[in-house]
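Supplementary Methods S3. Input chains for the assembly prediction are listed below.
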Amino acid sequence: MSTGTVATFEDSLERLEVGWTHASPDELADVLEGVCSDPTIGVELPYDGVDLPDWVNTDPTPADLREANAGITAAGLGIADYGSVVVQGTPDGIEPVSLFGDLHVAVLRRSDIVPGMPEAFDWLGEEFRTGHSSAIIATGPSATADMGALVKGAHGPKEVHVVILDE
Amino acid sequence: MSKAREAKAAKIRQLMETEGDAVGTSTRGFNEGRYQSVQTLDDYEGLKSEARAIKEDAIERLPELIDQLRETVESNGGTLYIADDAADANQYIREVCEDKEAERVVKSKSMTSEEIEVNEDLEAADIDVVETDLGEWVLQVADESPSHIVAPAIHKSREAIADLFNETFEPDEPLETAEELTMFAREQLGELIEGADVGMTGANFITADTGTMALVTSEGNARKTAVVPDTHVAVAGVEKVIPTVEDLRPFVELIGKSGTGQDITSYISLLTPPVESPTVDFDAPDAPLSETETDRDFHLVLIDNGRFDMREDDQLRETLYCIRCSACSNVCANFQHVGGHAFGGETYSGGIGTGWEAGVEGLDSAAEFNDLCTGCSRCTTACPVEIDIPWINTVVRDRVNRGEVSELDWLVEGLTPDEEPGGVSLQKRFFGNFETAAKVGSFFAPVSNWAAGLGVSRDLMERFLGIDARRELPAFQRETLKDWFENRTSRVDDPVRTAVLYPDVYTNHVQVERGKAAVRTLEALGVDVIVPDVRSSGRAPLSQGMIATAEDHAHDVYAGLAEHIDDGRDIVVIEPSDLAMFRSEYEKFLPEKSFERISEVSYEVMEYVFGLLEHGADADALSTSEGEGVAYHSHCQQRTLGLEGHTEAVLSDLGYDVATSDVECCGMAGSFGYKSEYYELSVDVGSELQGQFQSDENRDRTVVASGTSCLEQLDSLLSRPTQHPIQLVAPRR
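Predicted structure tokens for the full assembly:
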């Protein structure tokens, strides 16, 4: 992915006040330790040779979801113009793990960042036609203005952190 | 004032007092956000056209797309049910819940579920229904109805919500801040979601190719509603079906920007249910998700409830393109001041609400608030699917008119040579035939008050015509523009062009000085001017919903101008609302070619001056200035036509220092501000413009405005004189 697209993605995250960190596969564990606090739940990453550290609970229960401070999942795509990450619901629980914790940490491969919505929907069209059943285009934390002022963290995460995996 | 008018005025007054401030702050914020957010798009207009084309195609092919969707939903393992009406939908949903022995249904926000009143139906069957959208939950606790289709509790201030929660839930520590209120609601609703048996959502879009639905949200409640319980019921109108996943793209880019002014909402959930995500069974809190037996059930309930009839209705069909973004509510000056509790029907509110109510509830519900659309047209450029919302309101008004019966037609007898059958209200017939009243008015002026000349006192006018006695009536001039023009000879040698100055009814009878100024200005710039005897444009009857009369005007006006157009003359129009007729509404009334001919050669007078100056006319022939301060209010329809900038440019070129208002509408809107039931709202809307022009920076500036209504409103709100910009730049004699 071109440097321009990644830079645009970072600018968008900055605008959204979403933190981000670059990490190589070797650095990932340290980066995650820096941004997460216990208890942290997660779903194993689908990237070859990239594993979550042992202190991440990758087999959570409903009670763990309720108590989680952080939830770590992969993101299938990053959308540079908007600073969005695409979170794909899978049988191993990416959707609940990304949703219930106060902090969602999305781990995204640098090569999976696309410039804008046209590219994202070309990709999404293929994904849905080949059987994927769920994708959330998530942009920043959950939010509401229903109580008279903008509040971050309504029903979903109060904070989002994106780890850009440099291969 | 009649009792019905007094009751309407009282309701509006009460809502302006109790809800106007909260609604106004939020809607203006959303509207301002929209202007900023759409600027981030490379091709906003192109994207809107793309979205429009997708909807046009989808509604055209709807039966075929629904067949395709049924196949995809069923092959995905879900069920598609088409409900004829609300009762049919509710029965189906209730049976699904009963089959599951559901005790609690959690819902994410859905206007369509409000339309069918599914909550009441389920509660009658002893099923607990919980709204999980924070705004909807506030309303459920307060037992109130939404005042806005996207931000339903917009009419409630933070303080009011805090009082409500503190009284209802009696928390240990009283809740106060938005943060505290939100976290309290999150906690309460979180528990209710955990124990829910069925999750019900709406659907903003559904793609026929894969059965994928898109939910546009920000709180995360729709995600939880869809993922936690094993049964998902989605309720949506049949019009939500679009062909493919890729077709979602323009809508995803437009909907947040158009609605609440966000580039994109926090979550766009794209779901092809039943989804693969594991259910979260909080009854077994210690069983890992990996061991959960997930067996999901999905029911898509698509609701007709009048929509297929709307699809067959050439005038209401466009309503089905609506994506419920709320742009037309937020941009609307009247909506900003009263909100959806006045500017709304049984379910839907705002500009497009009339079309929805007429289609799904019936004309009676639409008639309740249809008159609050003044036709200012500011919503037409805000709408992401390019719906001609004022036209839908006009059509509904026309249909409502035709259903009304009046026994007092004698009052306006002789003043109403219209094409309408009986039934149009006297008030509407009077304003719709304003040209005739203006002729009578000029005949009597200035010998006697024109109303007195008509033999009708202000009291009688108020009682029977609903013309508010607090409004000053227009002062008709004895010598019309046409009279004046006929008694003089044109003084242009070797003219560069010949222009027909269209004698709109206001310029001809009331604002005669601006007509004279226009003639002098054009002549000074080397243009030969003709002021022909042509009928009024039809704007007045159109704004009363008298479409047949307006169309009759259109044919006459075209006939009266056709030879001039054939002869290569330009049509110059002073009154923006009449120019908008020539450039927009005549498309509905004239053959395509005729419309093209008249719309292509018609110019707003300052636009025309701008063009002449650009092509080398001598600006020094006009009244230039060395920095005189001018406060300019353009006209709503002029802004929609994109012609505000021409006036600003001409004034700046001539040396004036221009400050332009940024309100959407002055509040007067033709006859609206004269009507006794709307007078106070009109003044309330106008107070924003008044505030801008009386601010420290603007209070010493000369006031100019383009529209007759705007000038009348400004005259009543300001203590300094007003004029049309052409009067400022016309050569001094």
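The domain at 3-165 of chain A is CATH 3.40.50.10420 (Rossmann fold). Chain A is about 30% helix and 30% strand.
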